[in-house]
Prior knowledge:
Elements: H1 3-51, H2 55-135, H3 140-170, E1 180-183, H4 184-192, E2 205-209, E3 214-217, H5 219-235, E4 243-250, E5 253-260, H6 294-304, E6 308-313, E7 319-326
Parallel strand pairs: 2-4
Antiparallel strand pairs: 1-3, 4-5, 5-7, 6-7
Helix pairs in contact: 1-2, 2-3, 3-6, 5-6
Amino acid sequence: MSLNSVRKNRxxxxxxxxxxxxxxxxxxxxxxxxxxxxxIYQLKTELNIIQTSNPTEATLQGNKLQKKLHARWxxxxxxxxxxxxxxxxxxxxxxxxxxxxxxLNRQQNNFILSITHELRSPLAxxxxxxxxxxxxxxxxxxxxxxxxxxxxxxxxxxxLVENILLAARIEDSNFKLHLEKTDLGAYISEIQKGYKLAxxxxxxxxxDLQAGVHARIDRFSFLSILNNLxxxxxxxxxxxxPVCIALRQANGKVTLSVKDQGMGVQEEDKPHIFKxxxxxxxxxxxxxxxxxxxxxxxxxxxxxxxGTIQVRDNTPTGSIFxxxxxxxxx
Length: 330
């Protein structure tokens, strides 16, 4: 076990030691109480035999003492059971709190590592391209390629900052949406024009948008939903693999699905991927970019729109993220 793991688990180890001590003390207290009552019963029985000459009366007194002993046993067992239940409940709650705190610390540590990488990489890339432009006499085509690359890095930084600011805003209970009836097909088509892949990325992006689909959305927030789902599909699928964004309406529901043929989502990760900061694995060994905020924002904004977001497996490989919204008839 590493030194960091020992440090992280030190509070939990201390807690287990304390629990073990309390359980031992409780067991010892129970034994002493039973033993003490038995000794008192034995002494009173002997004293009763000495003081009473009538055997019948001595038997009656003995029966009374035995009933008192059983009543005290019942009292000890009842009070001990209540104490034990409270003790076990406290242990479970405290242990759960420790685990949640450790998980939160791990996720925050991952977030700090990822945000450092996410900020540093595009800045270094943009700087390198600007320095190349400044120091070398390049032809027009190469200059345009360099400028496009730098602009792409700036857009990436801008999207990252927008996600961080939006995640901070939605923690505010006063965060509200301005919903208005929108032709989603036309709206997404306009957004689509701004999406550009890197020159080396030969993947096929398919936009299958049904016409005449209307829903009440907040245009700024819905843009964030679409951006994050799109970026998630690009991030977790290999260059050259297809991605399909489809818009459909049926049975009073509007469905926006984003399908990729990437690595997919492991079954054990599915219940957690929409949690804030959650990313499978450790940041030090992860190859994909991200901060763990994108899908959290998608789920939060989907709920504010009165919709749901879910993930399921694609065939033969990859994932399908499906956003469902109420259809607007107004």
